[in-house]
UniProtKB/TrEMBL annotation:
Residues 571-608, 615-651 form the CBM10 domain. InterPro entries: CBM10/Dockerin_dom, Dockerin_dom_fun_sf, Spore_coat_CotH_CotH2/3/7. Residues 1-22 form the signal peptide. Coiled coil: none annotated. Pfam families: CBM_10, CotH. GO terms for molecular function: hydrolase activity. It comes from the Eukaryota. This is CBM10 domain-containing protein. Keywords: Hydrolase, Repeat, Signal. Transmembrane segments: none annotated.
């Protein structure tokens, strides 16, 4: 087998390299508490050989074939307990042999089963493979870098957060090389026992189903106690949910919730733009009450969709029950590294209590995270080290096989297949972004994203990017927004949506408002968003009745439809609905059957009819009109100029 030969050569190379240099294990410091399995794989890729009857293997492959988005419902955990397993680490003495009955090998994964290369679990009935009883093997073929799961667990480790660990393994089933897999463990009783010194583990609830949140009590339905005998016992969890829903301030919950622990998990989601945890999709996490402190915290797991992977605009607007974000632009114009908490949040009560009400502690925690872990000087060398470890095996793993026209292990012929190459691995572990149009994946260049995100966080929260210390007192800073004026571009292809994989970039970033020196010089004036406005969330509006819920369900686009001015009403149309008319602007956040709604001084207001007489057409998009007539861009709304560091609408009739 060619791959084994290559592996041996690399193994030797790796060993000599490690003698000369430090081991990748140094990253974890002296008190490395990870399970042994992960420690022994820091500088090696494991090999796992599994053998059982070929008929069952063929059936497993067939059962992996699932149409996209059918898979969540119909993905069967099919597999076998009648198999042998050899685990070994080439070039070392590490080795484990398992016999039929010792373990279960089965198809696994949830979202990943919509994709071409299925994942597997190995579950040991007794004993362990170097301290791990359940091995998750995931192909993570959406991620061009195959590194996001690994980098995330390393980042969390540096942040002091205890969760799953990651390394890599090559898998061979019945002599068939199925390529390279990400190897992780799972949050299980053994891990909790070890990490939290908890022998009872009565309050560990796994939130697997989407959209588990407080305000609609869905945490109760969507999260289950991991102990079968306790599945119907939800009193403790209900107490938590009620306490959050009834809290008036953080003081009401600080004895029940480990605030710093929750803020730290929020920080992870926020810095990596993870959409697959609490903030957005509301799953892949656990609520856990530590019996010693009596306080609840969240434990996240499953980290393939982090570091700005596979993000689409609608993720931020789909659930508009508790927050309205009509200003979120299309992906082309969305500046993801500048995403603020408000852009990401789905109007969670917990985010209001812990961040919006007073973000002092949040800022300190973000400062710690940036100092310890989320900065280029920690992450860039780590990316390079991991890239070096997996590069050659990944090259073999991604090779397209002549017989199948697909890469190794890609059995789900109906699923999405981004078909990332090793070149795209090299690009996306650095600064180059790639989109797989047929594979429904977008992989931002890790270093591009981290660098831009780091700049945004340092700027916004007043962290010195050189010393990584908080600047005291906290400086007022100009607002860095998410709405680009210039779209992304795909210079090497006809357009950004051609078949197959395309490179994309943001060639005009330096022309954006937030990049201008003069804009940043006048922080006091520019501290609020210029191109859009935030609407307070459902919880921030408090008891006050508001039309936000009705309005957002009837509004499908952010484009405001202006009523034809027939005869201008002098009375205020919204007064009869109990709302004053807006006095300060014509900006409409949302439109419903009654009319256009703005927001001023903490309450909703009707956009007055006189606004449709407004000569400045760009006002309702949040831009003033220009004095001059020089147009830099034309879109479906009109001609745009740029004056005093701001985009402005050109009034045609003044420019004839
Ligand atoms: C286990 O598999 C072997 C062949 O791989 C077969 O001979 C044996 O009958 C199987 N045992 C059971 C209990 O199914
Ligand atoms: C399964 O098939 C492979 C290749 O087709 C063959 O090498 C192997 O011996 C078979 N294994 C069993 C248990 O029949
Ligand atoms: C606008 O001004 C009027 C008169 O001063 C006031 O009654 C009304 O509440 C104001 N509207 C808003 C939205 O503040």
């Amino acid at each position: 087998m060619r791959f084994n030969k290559l592996f041996t050569v690399l193994g030797l190379l790796g060993t000599s390299l490690i003698k000369a240099n430090a081991s990748r294990s140094d990253f974890y410091g002296k008190n490395d508490y990870r399970p042994e399995l992960f420690k022994i794989l820091d500088d090696h890729i494991a090999t796992i050989k599994i053998d059982f009857d070929n008929e069952t293997w063929e059936t497993m492959k067939q059962k992996s074939v699932l149409e996209p988005w059918d898979a969540g419902k119909n993905g069967e955990k099919y597999g076998t307990t009648n198999a042998t397993l050899e685990f070994f680490v080439e070039g070392t003495d590490y080795r484990v042999d398992l016999q039929p009955g010792d373990f279960n090998f089965y198809l696994a994964g949830k979202g990943s089963r919509n994709y071409g290369k299925p994942g597997y679990n190995i579950k040991l009935e007794k004993g362990s493979i170097y301290d791990v009883k359940l091995l998750r093997l995931r192909s993570n073929i959406r991620d061009a870098t195959l590194m996001r799961e690994k980098l995330s667990s390393d980042l969390l480790y540096k942040m002091g957060v205890k969760t799953t660990s990651t390394n890599y393994a090559n898998i061979i089933v019945n002599g068939e090389d199925i390529g390279l897999f990400v190897l992780t463990n799972k949050i299980k009783k053994d891990l909790i026992k070890k990490y939290f010194n908890d022998k009872t583990i009565n309050d560990l609830y796994e939130c697997k189903l989407d959209y588990a949140r407080f305000e609609d009590n869905s945490i109760i339905e969507h999260c289950n106690n991991i102990k079968d005998e306790l599945v119907d016992d939800k009193d403790d969890l209900q107490n938590l949910v009620d306490a959050v829903n009834n809290a008036k301030s953080v003081d009401d919950i600080k004895d029940l919730i480990d605030i710093d622990a929750v803020l730290t998990t929020f920080a992870f989601e926020f810095v990596t733009l993870s959409w697959d945890h609490f903030f957005i999709l509301g799953h892949n996490y656990f609520w856990y009450k530590n019996p010693q402190s009596g306080k609840w915290m969240m434990i996240l797991n499953d980290f393939d969709e982090t570091f700005c992977q596979d993000i689409w605009s609608n993720y931020f607007t789909d659930d508009s029950r508790y927050i309205s974000k009509p200003y979120i632009p299309n992906l082309e114009y969305l500046n993801l590294p500048n995403l603020a908490v408000r852009d990401m949040d789905s109007g969670h009560k917990l985010v209001k209590l812990l961040i919006y009400d007073d973000d002092t502690r949040w800022r300190e925690i973000l400062g710690e995270v940036v100092k310890k872990a989320f900065n280029p000087s920690v992450l860039f060398p780590r990316i390079d080290e991991i890239a070096e470890l997996i590069h050659d095996d990944l090259a073999v793993s991604r090779e397209i096989l002549e017989e199948t026209g697909r890469a190794r292990g890609v059995f789900n012929t109906a699923g999405y297949d981004p078909k990332w190459t090793v070149t795209q691995f090299e690009d996306t572990t650095n600064y180059i972004n790639w989109a797989a149009n047929n594979g429904a994946s977008r992989s931002y260049g890790l270093k591009f994203f981290i660098e831009e995100r780091f700049k945004y966080i340092c700027h916004t929260y007043g962290i010195n990017p050189e010393t990584l210390e908080l600047i005291q007192p906290r400086p007022v800073v100009s607002f860095w927004g998410i709405k680009n004026k210039y779209p992304f571009a795909c210079p090497e292809s006809e357009n950004c949506y051609v078949e197959g994989n395309v490179k994309f970039s943001f060639p005009d970033l330096d022309k954006e408002l937030y990049m201008q020196e003069s804009y940043n010089a006048d922080a006091e004036k520019n501290k609020d968003p210029q191109e859009y406005q935030y609407v307070p969330t459902y919880h921030e509006q408090g008891e006050q009745q508001s039309p936000v819920n009705d309005a957002t369900t009837t509004t499908t686009t952010t484009t405001v439809v202006v009523a034809e001015p027939t005869n201008v009403e002098t009375t205020c149309w919204s007064e009869k609905l109990g709302y004053p008319c807006c006095n300060n602007s014509c900006y409409a956040f949302t439109t419903d059957n009654d009319g256009e709604w703005g927001y001023e001084d903490g309450h909703w207001c009707g956009v007055p009819a006189s606004c449709s007489q407004e000569k400045c057409w760009s006002k309702k998009y949040g831009y003033e009109c220009c004095q001059g007539c020089t147009a830099y861009e034309v879109d479906e709304f009109g001609k745009w100029g740029y004056e005093k560091n701001h985009w402005c609408g050109i009034i045609e009739e003044n420019c004839q």
